[in-house]
């Protein structure tokens, strides 16, 4: 008998049907993977179970009894603990306070600070060795790196008593070592009889640790099977609902004929960068690799005027200064971050308004010509096959993947010379990723120079012409041609560490 | 002889208060002719009651000889005035009466002030008609004393009916807006009893509406008196002169010199008041008021004060 | 220890403490008597009300809310307690009962704010402004004109001494103990978590609604304490007594290091902030500022102090 | 569009309802002249609220508590410059706008460069401006409004309407144009919705936000000028009552304080609604305590129609 079942769950946000027929059965001691394209309703299903989203209908039964989960507190009392995709941390509180936020230990009615530290440290113990520098139980969460924050959210999920753990994309910012420590802890919990629900867009991880997979498409559960009995291609086929098509994880591309040098860096340093020199050719996709947070994002942000640097940056042979994003945009740089909520979406405003700002800035217009602009907006949205219900609707009505397409479209309205991609596919489904990398390649073919950072090694290998491996703010190795293998990448990343 | 006198003003939102302080400082200087050095220490800021209590305590710390205060509350200063008295400091309130037995009040009788103009209005209307009143801040003691004053007077005239009483918070624009609304809903009123700066606003609303048939009380700033003379308004105004603080200062110096009042200050609701005469401006003496204000800025109020001689005459 | 981490580990109320010490020093230089036992006691008893109010305001600010009705609550409590004492008589028992009832009035006002802002989800700034109008109306209804005296026993006690120590110091000590305990309570910790990121706190499983409502009630209770202090120091009822004090309570909280965006600050800092606001006027006077310039200098000083506080704490957090 | 229209329609409906109620309680309340006069008062508030509206739309807790101080200072300066003569009107307008934009600029720089929260910055600035007023009143005599200015505000001019109502209408159109038809308008909304993302999308966030405060100062100054015309002479603290009223007008008009959403048309109706409500209360013959209780409760009820933030649970 399943420990918990959800049947016929549905939920609509206005006109958006987030979930039409969600169904899942969870057995004790299993690691249950949920897969689905962006916006298919995975998070919605999980949040309903965690009590933070109120379903429009459907039944949940626990050990055969129907249960009602009115709020997260109730879910917790039923033994359900969740890792939120967007995290649920208080950035001004300490790591320890966050981990135990639900139930701070008290003594004589007052919060017992020593006990808070000790208990939190105990919960965090499995990840202590992979949390790396700047981390302590007393650190303010707002001062941590994204991967460290994910670790805190993981520890917070494990804190207290629960026997159903839901992890909604917990590894999207973790490096390999951190992921492994996490998986080890999952194994331990599983062995103790816990149910684990796991969402990830990384196929390898899924096959590495999953027992069972449920696939959701367009808000509907389409299949559920033991992982041993299915294949990667079948899952992809079920997710996209058609043929599986090509794969993002193809072999490295042929090296193109190198164009002229577009961007050249000499001895660029900043708070996290040390003496970075590189040259990027027109038509080239230059990958930035290495462990997480070794300066890759910092380089991209610095080139977009977001960080102070020393050293020389030359564009088409002429030195340029990049004091601000506006200067960078004028200089021909474009920047796309995977962190949509803070860096991308102008939330609450329309799709139209989210596409036009770069164009308006570059064209130095002051009057808004809606008619002409709308046609342009439609054109660029089509290049990426963005699914939307009208450019007047708020961008928040779209799924994560489609929001990202809208944000990318910004840079397609006018000519851009150098595109800076900062983990642009974070939390984006396979199909969309494919479309995106195809677009990136076609942009490169048109002469754009592209700097690509992604947290997934397979993606990096499959889409870069050359790869610069970073360690501690420095470039430690360049991989080109046949060197671009998983083995070389991993060993280069670790060798200096 | 040398005396230090602290002046406390808890509200700077009107020109009347500025003039009050300036005249008091002038009056202090005038004592030099009599061979008395009077130094003033001034604290004048927008403060609430605690803030003004702090004024008094600062003066006590400084060791002044007397404190003259235009108080933000009638009763709230009882404890702190007791502290001042313990320190041997003379406390005089002006403009608004205080309940403290440790202080005396030197200023006009606010109730009498209202009675005077209400009587003018009632008599001008020949004892019959409908009137409205536009008052200051509800709950403020000076306002409530004034309200009691006009209500008492109008009560004496059975044919005068008060149809509405509204509050304009001593704000000229609010007075104007209130009058505007009153004119729309009580088009047949005969008279308006209105206080201070709000009178200028009320008159402006009446002029905008072309209603020159209504009688209304006026105010004492030069701006208004000019309009009054130019347009021959049907108005009368009792005067609360900004010189009250100067008068209080002149009384204070005499008391500091150890003199005794011929008639002790026992008037008023709290039995500690020394009331000053209240001038009245009507058509009869309007030109004199105009002349007195000749050449002054528009916001200057018609004033009067007890001269040093007048004040000294009150003492044995 | 680096410069940045030093800034980060310093107590959040350090800037305001330094400002306060500087102000005391300047005051003492300009007028030595302003540091006399009498003057200090006067300062404390005058600004106890603002300190309580600032603590109440800080509690709601912790949860990223705000309460613009605290001054009106203080006024309502002031007239209520004086009217009650008049009605119930001036025996110690009656006075205590009146005080208790008045605190209940404060709590009820806070509860109304909580219901409107948290449960009915009105925007805090405008909703609490609306309730402040309502509370002022109620205060005027309870006491149409300022002036009813409080019983002698009540204000004599407040203004007097016990074992040679001014009573105001006992109240201050009680306030400090109270905030020491509150700061370590689970309630305040949860309030801070809610203020930090409300959605995250809800998703974590905290009862966000009840925490915020309780914050408003607590604020109302502190406003009532403030009302009692003002009644003790003024010995009378005045419906308009809370005029300027609301915005001062916000300024005191900000000076003390609380962020209006919630989740940051200390109650102790706000107490210091209240003292700074209280001292500014005196300082400006004692430094011999001409009367017509006093307001400007005071305004500039407060603005500068606010900026210094924010720049320091902002730097530390950045 | 219909979503944005709803609060405006509610507010407009409430205005009509209040007028009808007013006419029933005190006949004459809805007479054409009275409507005209209430509109003039609403226009004064509405002009202040235009600046307040912009600052609020720009988000990041945008709010301008210094408007009252700016109004008073502008009225003082303008009255002094024109001192009752039509010839002085034009220089007075310039002087007043200079004063307003200077204070607005300081507010804006404090908020953007020093990152002081707007509530704190503008509250502090209010204290400074009030202090400045005391100093200035001692130094310069306040003057009278030019006759032309007074007529502009209170005498019927074109098509039976006083100039100020035309000015308000013009400001309404200009604001609609600015917000919906210009790039600057887009930028206001985008910094209000997500400043960080807007900056990465090429929006000059600091410049834009600073300009909003400058504009707020300018609108307050213009309102100060008009209020001088309305009351004939400048007096201390003319602007005091506009600080919270302007915020309420914006909120009643359907612009939430969180920014990034809303517009000015609703604010105009919000200003009208507030003025009609206050006017109606004035004409009721009841105690002041009753008026305050009714006013407070009515505001609460009105706020229940809008401005409700969304719940946490989707
Ligand atoms: N709060 C919300 N308001 C409006 N629409 C929403 C909201 N939350 C989710 N949606 C919509 O519901 C749909 C399902 O979203 P959900 O987050 O469950 O997708 P997901 O499968 O988790 O996608 P991803 O892989 O991108 O995280 C999407 O179209 C999304 O835009
Ligand atoms: N929100 C912000 N947070 C931090 N720094 C900012 C912010 N907005 C702007 N800046 C910085 O302030 C400076 C001026 O920014 P602004 O956006 O006004 O650019 P700009 O001067 O208009 O650009 P350009 O000169 O290219 O037109 C730049 O150094 C920019 O990096
Ligand atoms: Mg999701
Ligand atoms: Mg620029």
Automatic annotation (TrEMBL), chain A:
<feature type="domain" description="ABC transporter">
    <location>
        <begin position="255"/>
        <end position="497"/>
    </location>
</feature>
<dbReference type="InterPro" id="IPR003593">
    <property type="entry name" value="AAA+_ATPase"/>
</dbReference>
<dbReference type="InterPro" id="IPR027417">
    <property type="entry name" value="P-loop_NTPase"/>
</dbReference>
<feature type="domain" description="ABC transporter">
    <location>
        <begin position="4"/>
        <end position="243"/>
    </location>
</feature>
<keyword id="KW-0547">Nucleotide-binding</keyword>
<dbReference type="InterPro" id="IPR050107">
    <property type="entry name" value="ABC_carbohydrate_import_ATPase"/>
</dbReference>
<keyword id="KW-0067">ATP-binding</keyword>
<keyword id="KW-0813">Transport</keyword>
<dbReference type="Pfam" id="PF00005">
    <property type="entry name" value="ABC_tran"/>
</dbReference>
<keyword id="KW-0677">Repeat</keyword>
<protein>
    <submittedName>
        <fullName>Sugar ABC transporter ATP-binding protein</fullName>
    </submittedName>
</protein>
<dbReference type="GO" id="GO:0005524">
    <property type="term" value="F:ATP binding"/>
</dbReference>
<dbReference type="InterPro" id="IPR017871">
    <property type="entry name" value="ABC_transporter-like_CS"/>
</dbReference>
<keyword id="KW-0762">Sugar transport</keyword>
<dbReference type="InterPro" id="IPR003439">
    <property type="entry name" value="ABC_transporter-like_ATP-bd"/>
</dbReference>
From TrEMBL, chain C:
<keyword id="KW-0472">Membrane</keyword>
<keyword id="KW-1133">Transmembrane helix</keyword>
<dbReference type="Pfam" id="PF02653">
    <property type="entry name" value="BPD_transp_2"/>
</dbReference>
<keyword id="KW-0812">Transmembrane</keyword>
<feature type="transmembrane region" description="Helical">
    <location>
        <begin position="267"/>
        <end position="287"/>
    </location>
</feature>
<protein>
    <submittedName>
        <fullName>ABC transporter permease</fullName>
    </submittedName>
</protein>
<feature type="transmembrane region" description="Helical">
    <location>
        <begin position="293"/>
        <end position="312"/>
    </location>
</feature>
<feature type="transmembrane region" description="Helical">
    <location>
        <begin position="94"/>
        <end position="117"/>
    </location>
</feature>
<keyword id="KW-1003">Cell membrane</keyword>
<feature type="transmembrane region" description="Helical">
    <location>
        <begin position="42"/>
        <end position="63"/>
    </location>
</feature>
<feature type="transmembrane region" description="Helical">
    <location>
        <begin position="12"/>
        <end position="30"/>
    </location>
</feature>
<feature type="transmembrane region" description="Helical">
    <location>
        <begin position="215"/>
        <end position="235"/>
    </location>
</feature>
<feature type="transmembrane region" description="Helical">
    <location>
        <begin position="241"/>
        <end position="260"/>
    </location>
</feature>
<feature type="transmembrane region" description="Helical">
    <location>
        <begin position="163"/>
        <end position="183"/>
    </location>
</feature>
<feature type="transmembrane region" description="Helical">
    <location>
        <begin position="70"/>
        <end position="88"/>
    </location>
</feature>
From TrEMBL, chain D:
<feature type="transmembrane region" description="Helical">
    <location>
        <begin position="119"/>
        <end position="140"/>
    </location>
</feature>
<feature type="transmembrane region" description="Helical">
    <location>
        <begin position="266"/>
        <end position="286"/>
    </location>
</feature>
<keyword id="KW-0812">Transmembrane</keyword>
<feature type="transmembrane region" description="Helical">
    <location>
        <begin position="242"/>
        <end position="259"/>
    </location>
</feature>
<dbReference type="InterPro" id="IPR001851">
    <property type="entry name" value="ABC_transp_permease"/>
</dbReference>
<feature type="transmembrane region" description="Helical">
    <location>
        <begin position="211"/>
        <end position="230"/>
    </location>
</feature>
<keyword id="KW-1003">Cell membrane</keyword>
<protein>
    <submittedName>
        <fullName>ABC transporter permease</fullName>
    </submittedName>
</protein>
<feature type="transmembrane region" description="Helical">
    <location>
        <begin position="292"/>
        <end position="309"/>
    </location>
</feature>
<keyword id="KW-0472">Membrane</keyword>
<feature type="transmembrane region" description="Helical">
    <location>
        <begin position="88"/>
        <end position="107"/>
    </location>
</feature>
<feature type="transmembrane region" description="Helical">
    <location>
        <begin position="65"/>
        <end position="82"/>
    </location>
</feature>
<feature type="transmembrane region" description="Helical">
    <location>
        <begin position="40"/>
        <end position="58"/>
    </location>
</feature>
<keyword id="KW-1133">Transmembrane helix</keyword>
<dbReference type="Pfam" id="PF02653">
    <property type="entry name" value="BPD_transp_2"/>
</dbReference>
